[in-house]
Amino acid sequence: MSYKVGQRVEVPVKECQGVIAYVGFPSFASGKWIGVILDEPKGKNNGTVKGKMYFNCAENYGMFARQAQLILLDEAGNRTEPVSPSSAGSNATTPDDSGPARARSRLNSISTRRRNEPTAVRRKTSPANITRQQADKLSGSRLSLTGSRTLLSAPSTESLSGSLHERRDGGESLIPAPTSTKRASFIETGFVETLKPQFVPGQAMAGSAVVAANLMEEKLSHMQLAQENDNLKSQVHDLTEKVETLRVKRMQDKERMKDFEKTKLQIEQLIEFKTKVMESQASLQRDLQRARQEAREAHAAREQFQEEMADLAETVEMATLDKEMAEEKAETLQIELEQLKDKLEEQTLDLEILRTEMSERAAGGGSATGASSYEIKQLEQQNSRLRETLVRMRDLSAHEKHEFQKLQKDMDQKKSEIMELGRTKEKLSARVEEMEHQIADLQEQVDAALGAEEMVEMLGEKKMALEEKVAELQEAVSDLEALQDMSDQLAESSKELELELREELDLALGAARDAQRHRDAALETLADRELTIVKFRELTHQMQEQYLQLQQRVQSTESTKTNVRGADQQLAEILDFQKTFAETRAQTKAVDLELRRLDADEARNHVCHLLSFMPPAFLARGGDHDAILMLLLIPRMTQKTEILISQVREKYRSIEKIDRASVIRGHSVAQYSFRSRLCSHMYSLQTALSCFESVLNSCSPEMLLKAGNAYPEMAAQEKSLDSLIELAKRDQLDENLPMEAIEKCCAYFATMFSVLFGESTAVNQARLIVNGTRTLGSACDAISTDATAIKALIQGEGGDIGLLCQHVETTCEVIQQHLKSARRRVPRDHAGPAFSVGANLGLDKDCNEQFSTSYQHAVKIVKTLQYLLKSALQAITENGDLDTGLPADKLKEMAATSSEKVYDTEDLGPVATIKASLTVIQQLAANLAQKMAECENELAISGQTQNQQQSLEGEQLTPILIRANAARKESEETKILSRKLETRDSDIREARLALREKQEELSEMTLRKELAEKRFITQQHEHEMNVEQLKRKLEEAQNQLKRKEKEFEETMDHLQTDIDSLETEKGQLKEKLKSIGKKTLSTVGADSIAGSTSLTSAMDNKYYVQEINALREALSNEHLQKKKIMCAVLRQKLDSLEPLSSPTSLKALDSTIQELRKKTTDLVKDVQKTLVYPTVPDLRRKLPETSYHYLLERRRNIMQLKERADELAAQVRREAIKRTPGGRAEANFAVYPNREMAAAMRERKLLAAEIKIPYNGPERSFSVNVGTQELRKIHTLLYY
């Protein structure tokens, strides 16, 4: 069946449902995987594995699984049986279908059968299990044949396959579950492992083969009914016990569900509280932002206030300057006032002169023909008024001209805008034409598309053909998926086979190592024997020579005596040779031992000498020394446990058969049980020590020192191992040895690890699994051995104790299988010493505690069985009949006393207690095997990445190395601090001397300061008096100025009235002149009376012409006089101005500039000499005060250079003010710039405009310094 994205499935492993989000072949593992988004957070990821995202979901809601691990659900949420589409298609085909379809259906049926059947595992079986396996095979074949017959005949194939699947998943018996509800309520595998048959060729036979199989089936069923009944009875008994245990578990599950509901309500309350907290946090965040904004505004206001204060300071300075300027202006006004007084006196004199002239003229009767001075004055005033009007007309014309130019610019701008709009209009018209062409093209395309109905029909036919091809390809894909599933199953079976072969390879390698060791020992013995053979050959050669000599002496009478003596001598020589050879070997060993003892003594003395150099803190309790001893203790104890395990395994071999005679009369069973128990304790101790080693190599230095504080107690626990090694040396390790000391040692290290480190995540889980599985495996060996021995001692039917022993054997066998599968799935490189840190296999944090609890349960079972076995043997020996066993009732009583003795208050009876303990161990083993099977692919990938990371990162620093580096740094820092203290003492002495000198200088400076303050007070008082006097003078001058202004206004008003009267007179005269002209023209050509009148009018006209000429001459004279007066006034003003700088004074000014330049160059040289080329003090002098005096001298030189630079800058500023015309304000004591000059000196760059040019690249800014003309040009270019 092909799974698709969006379908709902059930995951039995996680006991929840979900939706398929991904189907494919990921990169983190081989084969086809399905990504599921679970409804509950029981997953492992969020759709992302190894940095690659396959789908997206919340954290711990996603997981990947195989197709066989999922169950498809329909829309109602019910399970659907997995029926492949190819098999359904094969049922619907007719007998006339082609051969490939039949082959494909047959292949799919085979794959489904293989998928339903578990993979066969090769293992060694005992002779007692062979008959049971044969019966299971026969019953399995019969069930397969009946299943095939029902597949051919009846339509209810799904129910039968479901029942078969339920029976195979159960694993305890061959009884089929009657209903689906029973299957749902009772799913617990792994109690009794039975072997299932593999692929049966008889399942795919034709009709004749089916009939023959039915006949064979009936015969076999009659033969095996009796045997199956016995098996079923025992299995029913086991199932009843399991049902009882399951009822108890269901009651516990109800209580857990109640707790779950309570926790769910608490979680909802916590979520509501979390929302409220988040809302309050958001409001607080808003308040915080508002407060920050207010703080920023306050800071900006503060900066603005500081700027305003700076501006006020500047205005105060400007006010002082304005005050000085006002004083100067007051002086100039006083001078002008005196001048105006003089002018007023002159004007009064002129007025008197005019009055006299007017009186004289009035007295003379108006006969004077020349113009009076009064008229001249009037004409001058009239000319001045005409001049003013001319100036106004000129200003008006200039204003009109400016207005005209402005309008001209506006017109040019409008013209440019009109031209730009014309260009845009042309562009838009071109765009409109282009769009019209495009619309025409699109219209043609639409017309062409309207006539494409035939093409649509052809495309529809092609679509139908492609749909048919897609359907065919889907069928092919389903077939390929079935093949892929089959290949995945074959790959899994091959992988399991590979793991088994690896385990066998490990065992073979261990055996090879043992054989190598035996071979080396045999070679040594062979070498010794060859030496002895050479010696014996030499001895035989000597004996042959002696024999020849003795043959020559046979004739003598004392031949018999000599022969006897020769034989004795030969035997003595042989014994002497063996003795000398043993002595030489013992001598070499003694020499080697002496050399090793010498090396050990030398190393011990070396360590003692090194410790004598260490500070007391190093040797204190819980210090670095104890930490080092702790790091040496852990591997030493591990090696001692390995020695004990190897010694006891070599001494006591495994037994092939356990019967009553071997239990009662021999000691091999007890010795093998002792070996298993001792190995279990040693492996348990190795488990705790490996946890210590991995954590101590990766923890912090503080944790290492804390663990080192417990070194004395741990060293005391080592004595138990030393006592066992001493017994092994004396060959006294036997079954009579008590185990309480080593059990206390194991419990001590387990409890100390939890006390010191708690639930540490730095434990090497690979080594933990290897050592823990070995511990439980050895304990199971001891338990099964004792159980088999007890079962051999039962007389007659076994009863409860016999069934208990049988259950113990089978359970121990299942536990051994689980432990072996978990141990062989651990990567070898993770369990080595190179992976002492970071070898995390994804186990729970309390896995160490689980192993310790399982070990305690195993120890209790072993003790119970040991007490029961000892009491049974004692009872048999007391009866005297060693061939007869004990009845089951008596053994049950002994078992009750033994369990009560071991379990104390936890005792529930021997059967229930031992089964409960075995259940705990079995659950741990099953969970461990399942966890390792799930994480196998991830371990392979993570192993590669960890190897790469290890090769890249290199070796990490252990806590002892970190502590050593810290100790080195502390010693170096103490040395540096001692040197610094010495230099600090010398500096303090120098500073004291300098302080005395500074105090003397300070006393002198205080005296000078007091004198300067007195002078300043007196000068300030004088300055205040002068200021008050100047204020009085200023007020008087202001009052006089106001009076003069009032008088000036009155005179101006009077003169204005005179001007108005003169203007009216002038108008009247002009009217008279016009009327006279008209009269002369109208009276031409009249009579004599008219002629006489014309003569008089002609005379009047001549008179007027003469008067006009005289007025013109007077006007020209007036211009000349005015020019002279203006020249005199201008000359007087020029004389009053300061003299210009003449070329003759340039040399003196240049001399000042040259002097300033010289001072500047000298200052630059001194600065370079002081800063760039500093003088190095002579360090060879013994006096330490010279360096300090050198620093003081250098600071004094730098301060002098700063003062010189400030003074030179002030001189340059004064000279610039002097040379700037009009930039100087007059003062008596110093040179001050005027307001414009000060503003020019403080002038900064002004940002006149900012031009932004569109650009796609990174933003850049350029500053351009421009003048007025450039700014105008830029403005015209941008806007006009």
Question: Your description of this structure?
Answer:
The protein has 1280 residues and is mainly α. 76% of the residues lie in helices and 3% in strands. The longest helix is centred in the first third of the chain and has 158 residues. The chain is elongated and about 215 Å long. About 12% of the residues have low confidence. One of its GO terms (biological process) is cell division.
Keywords:
5-stranded antiparallel β-sheet; SH3 type barrels; mainly alpha; CAP-Gly_dom_sf; 9 strands; 1280 residues; dynein; 76% helix; 29 helices; microtubule; Dynactin subunit 1; cytoplasm
Produce the secondary structure layout.
Layout: E1 8-11, E2 16-24, E3 33-38, E4 48-49, E5 52-53, E6 62-65, E7 71-72, H1 85-92, H2 99-116, H3 127-153, H4 157-170, H5 180-185, H6 207-364, H7 373-450, H8 453-552, H9 559-613, H10 616-619, H11 624-651, H12 660-664, H13 668-696, H14 701-708, H15 711-729, H16 740-757, H17 765-792, H18 799-824, H19 828-831, H20 847-879, H21 888-903, H22 910-934, H23 936-953, H24 959-1082, H25 1088-1136, H26 1146-1172, H27 1185-1219, E8 1224-1225, E9 1232-1233, H28 1235-1241, H29 1268-1279
Antiparallel strand pairs: 1-2, 1-7, 2-3, 3-6, 4-5, 8-9
